Amino acid sequence: MVKNKAKAFSHPNIAFIKYWGNVNDNLRIPANGSISMNLKDLRTETEVHFSSELNTDELVLNKKKVSGAGFDRVSNMLDIVRNMAEIELFAKVVSTNDFPTGSGIASSASAFSALTLASSRAAGLDLDETELSRLARTGSGSASRSIPGGFVEWFQGDDHKSSFSESIASAEHWDLVDNIAVISKDHKKIGSTSGHLLAKTSPIQAGRVADTERRLEICRKAILNKDFFALAEISEIDSNLLHSVMMTSTPPLIYWQPATIEIMKSVTEWRATGLEVFYTIDAGPNVHVISPAGISQKVAAKIREVEDVQDVITSFAGGPAQIIE
Q1: pLDDT in single tens digits along all 325 residues of the chain
Q2: Is the distance from CB of 280 to CB of 288 less than 8 angstroms?
Q3: Which of 73, 171, 197, 251 has the fewest beta carbons closer than 10 A?
Q4: In 3-state terms, what secondary structure has residue 139?
Q5: Using the 8-state DSSP alphabet, how is residue 186 labeled?
Q6: CA distance 146 to 144
Q7: Are 110 and 103 contacting, i.e. CB atoms less than 8 angstroms apart?
Q8: At what angle do helices 129-139 and 68-85 cross, to 10 degrees?
Q9: Looking at domain 176-316, what is its CATH homologous superfamily?
């Protein structure tokens, strides 16, 4: 039965082992598995309303009507939901983020996971977590990781059914904080969807993918054992590999700014003096500086001292996507 309207919220996530490149671009089957942590203090809220009074889909993001590629991506996701629910109604989607959009803080992950949950529920579907994760993946690969809660692994799989995410530890398992050094709030000129298509042009991508299982195993054990320095080492290696692929693609993608590099160098120096910190960077200039919760305020203060850092956003580990009743 179609309920017509539903509202959901979801969190972005920060990947310790990154997703980059697909073996199937249409289904977003990734070239490798990945592991991430949801971010509790950042969220996207999305309301979906299917209505017989609409003659096309509508998308309003942060109070602005959206058209073009962003709208098409949302409408394509709604088409999948309509097909699953066997309905023909168009929908109005109203979505808001409480953090910068399109700047390397995984806004598409929270956007499409919230859209997946709200649209499927509004269409009368009752999907379990695995089914929701698969569906979210078709809109944004990393969105599949924002459906479950806490520390999450996305299994690569080789088809739609086998490529999904699940929690490997709850948000309460480990008291980590992501201290995000905001260097730019601008929407990046080349988004991740376009970047994934370029991955195979890099001579480094094949080696990065071939070594992923080893990195995943180290990362998984580090999280389960709460081994901070093991997680730090493998996360920084993985982040550097990701950006090496980007920089050696054709054309190259260079997201870093001078302050990005300065934060990377500073974090390495801080850790050498005994501070429990490490960096990881998604497709953008902003740097995610991970630390135990107990020293987060100290870490945030040190980040703010770095020139050209506009702001620091802090977040604990977060739970799953949820319906707002």
Answers
A1: 567 999 999 999 999 999 999 999 999 999 999 999 999 999 999 999 999 999 999 999 999 999 999 999 999 999 999 999 999 999 999 999 987 765 556 689 999 999 999 999 999 999 999 999 999 999 999 999 999 999 999 999 999 999 999 999 999 999 999 999 999 888 777 888 889 999 999 999 999 999 999 999 999 999 999 999 999 999 999 999 999 999 999 999 999 999 999 999 999 999 999 999 999 999 999 999 999 999 999 999 999 999 999 999 999 999 999 999 8
A2: yes
A3: 251
A4: helix
A5: S
A6: 6
A7: no
A8: 150
A9: GHMP kinase, C-terminal domain (3.30.70.890)
Residue type, 110: S
User: How far is C-alpha 32 from the chain's CA centre?
Assistant: 15
Cα–Cα nearest to 290, from 242, 240, 229, 241: 229
* Cα 112 from Cα 90, distance rounded (Å): 17
For the chain, which residues make up each domain, given as ranges?
5-170, 176-316
Q: Do 61 and 187 form a contact (C-beta atoms < 8 A)?
A: no
Backbone angles phi, psi at 285, to 5 degrees: -85, -15
* Three-class HEC string of 32-92: CCEEEEEECCCCEEEEEEEECCCCCCEEEECCEECCHHHHHHHHHHHHHHHHHHCCCCEEE
CATH 3.30.230.10 corresponds to the domain 5-170? yes
Rounded to 10°, the helix 107-122/68-85 angle is 30
